Automatic annotation (TrEMBL):
One Pfam family recorded for the sequence: AbrB
Species of provenance: Tigheibacillus halophilus
Keywords recorded for this protein, A-Z: Membrane, Transmembrane, Transmembrane helix
Matches recorded under InterPro entries: AbrB_dup, AbrB_fam
Domain of life, per lineage: Bacteria
Transmembrane feature ranges: 12-38, 58-80, 92-113, 144-172, 192-210, 217-237, 272-296
PANTHER family cross-referenced by the UniProt entry: REGULATOR ABRB-RELATED
Coiled-coil parts of chain: none
Protein name per the record: AbrB family transcriptional regulator
Length: 349
């Protein structure tokens, strides 16, 4: 037992060092969202090409998600919530159109591969990664390897591509210093207390409670909902220093990077090609939907793209925060789609 604990600690330490090196390197290269992308790419290369033994417990990923959930919750002011309520019909329209696109992509993938349609559909659905994989595990006749690989590759492609797309001149967005997460003055760090204690307690309690009742993405939504409610009640949540946001990105990016295990995949060439192809089609479809969304509502093109992007709410929230897009709108559309998929898809399987 003692040897296992020591080995596990060693694996976590090595993983952390490599993740930090990846983040520092990406920041020096001025790559957008460096502390999310750097650790993620470092894990993919180290795990699959160098065959290093990494370890990254889920509670580290969950900690990062709670921090991002709190940050998103800060954007959920009364004015933002009213605007989100007004856009509910559009949220439904965008979600349905994206689901139809996923269904079409799944049909193409199933025709070009040995996968059945249901496996291809679960691989294409842009829901919460964990929820989709759990659903695949619990459904008979589903090719779990195909679903996992397709979902992870799609997520990685989107996390890498979206920061680059939204910073193109066409989308008219720019990143803040250090990807929008520069360290704040020491006064801000000190002023976190005692106000942050209430928000932290509420966020952690709701995250644990949500996880216990199998709430979708509980470690993200719990703190987000708790923070939003406290703000509506009149409490003011302090903004987190940049290094805390960077740490949260590292915790999440490292976890995502370790999810891709090439050694467990059969027919690697075909599987990867189809996964990349379906990811490109989904991204292309989301760009078209973002044009429609921007035409229907007065919002920046970058905000519209991140709102319709088929990625996770935590990753899109990080990118929206980094480039100073409308975080409440992005989170609102991503949250609506998460719930729609969570409640609409399982009964069909």
């Amino acid at each position: 037992m003692g040897h296992y604990v020591l080995y596990n600690f060693k694996g976590i330490f090595i993983t952390l060092i490599i993740a930090i090196i990846g983040g520092v390197l990406f920041q020096l290269l001025h790559i957008p969202v460096p502390w999310l992308l750097g650790p993620m790419i470092a894990m993919v290369l180290g795990k699959n090409m160098l065959q290093w033994d990494f370890a990254w417990p889920y509670h580290l990923r969950n900690t990062g998600m709670m921090i991002i959930g709190y940050t998103i919750g800060l954007s959920m002011t009364l004015a933002a919530l009213r605007e989100m309520a007004l856009q509910l019909p559009t949220m439904l329209l965008m979600t349905v159109l994206l689901m139809l696109l996923c269904a079409g992509i799944a049909l193409i993938v199933s025709m070009l591969s040995d996968s059945d349609y249901r496996s291809a559909l679960l691989g294409s659905i842009p829901g919460g990664l964990t929820q989709v994989i759990v659903l695949a595990e619990e459904t008979k006749g589903i090719n779990l390897a195909v679903v996992t690989v397709t979902q992870v590759i799609r997520l990685m492609m989107i996390v890498i591509a979206m920061p680059l797309l939204v910073l193109m001149p066409f989308f008219g967005q720019h990143a803040g210093d250090n990807g929008g997460t520069a360290a704040l003055p020491i006064e801000t760090t000190v002023s976190l207390f005692p106000h942050i204690i209430l928000f932290a307690l509420v966020g952690v309690i709701l995250a644990l409670l949500g996880n216990k009742i199998h709430f979708p993405t509980a470690y993200l939504l719990g703190p987000m909902i708790g923070t939003a409610v406290l703000q509506v009640l009149g409490f003011t949540g302090p903004h987190l220093p940049g290094f805390v946001i960077n740490a949260a990105q590292l915790l999440i990016g490292t976890h995502v990077g370790l999810m891709l295990k090439a050694s467990e995949i059969e027919h690697k060439g075909r599987t990867f090609s189809l996964a990349i192809g379906s990811g490109l089609m989904l991204m292309g479809g989301s760009v078209v939907l973002s044009f429609i969304l921007g035409w229907l509502h007065d919002m920046s093109r970058a905000t519209a793209l991140l709102a319709t992007a088929p990625g996770g709410m935590d990753q899109m929230g990080i990118i929206a925060h980094a480039i100073e897009a409308d975080l409440s709108i992005v989170s609102g559309y991503q949250l609506f789609r998460t719930f729609f998929i969570y409640f609409a898809i399982p009964p069909r399987f």
